[in-house]
Design brief:
about 20% strand, alpha/beta, globular, 7 strands
Length: about 200
């Protein structure tokens, strides 16, 4: 049993896989970087730190490869991109915090998730890393506390639907990443091939 199971705000895991993958032209959740679908690889990494872990997806994806057979939270905030998946999870489990990762991070590893989980600050709205993009917070490898739900809804009412802007406009703890490569994403066939090549070495 996780000690946090007795926590009033336990840490759950969420793999964001509900995107359309239009640039990749193939479902990113089912891509194979580590001998298995990336969605499954991410779930396995999260289970070391989270008492429950879920795939975030649209209801019509539930039985597709990379999703079928895994615990899921279906989008209830539709056509909103990553923030819709995050809000759907926070709505489904109102007392939980979520360690959120995107399924398009081929270099995501155990070390960076351990660093994130160890640095979690439940008094903040979000705990996140300064990412590779000009040091801006990386919203898709981050911990969203239960307080992120009302705050994100408030910002949504102001027209803010970008998870990074939610972090920038909320009380957040921003960390230095132990390895920025872990936060690099792969969104198109070329970056997918380059990631496979790098991982093979």
């Amino acid at each position: 049993m996780f000690a946090q199971d007795r926590d009033p705000h336990p840490l759950y895991g969420l793999v964001l896989g509900g995107g359309r993958s239009e640039r990749m032209r193939s479902d990113k959740a089912s891509l194979n970087y580590h001998g298995k679908p990336q969605s499954e690889h991410c779930l396995e990494l999260l289970r070391a730190h989270c008492s429950q872990s879920f795939l975030s997806c649209r209801r019509d994806q539930a039985d597709q490869p990379g999703f079928a057979g895994h615990p899921q939270i279906h989008d209830t905030f539709l056509e909103m991109g990553p923030l819709g998946g995050i809000l759907s999870a926070l709505r489904a489990h109102r007392q939980a915090a979520f360690l959120v990762v995107a399924c398009d991070l081929p270099f995501l590893d155990a070390a960076i998730l351990a660093a994130l989980a160890a640095a979690r600050d439940p008094e903040k709205t979000v705990t996140a890393f300064a990412g590779p993009q000009a040091g801006l917070p990386e919203p898709l490898c981050a911990i969203y506390e239960s307080s992120a739900y009302p705050r994100a809804l408030e910002l949504l009412g102001q027209g803010i639907s970008c998870p990074r802007k939610v972090i920038l406009n909320s009380p957040s703890r921003i960390l230095q990443a132990p390895d920025l490569r872990s936060l690099l994403n792969a969104n198109d066939p070329e970056t997918y091939r380059n990631a496979l090549k790098a991982l093979s070495h």
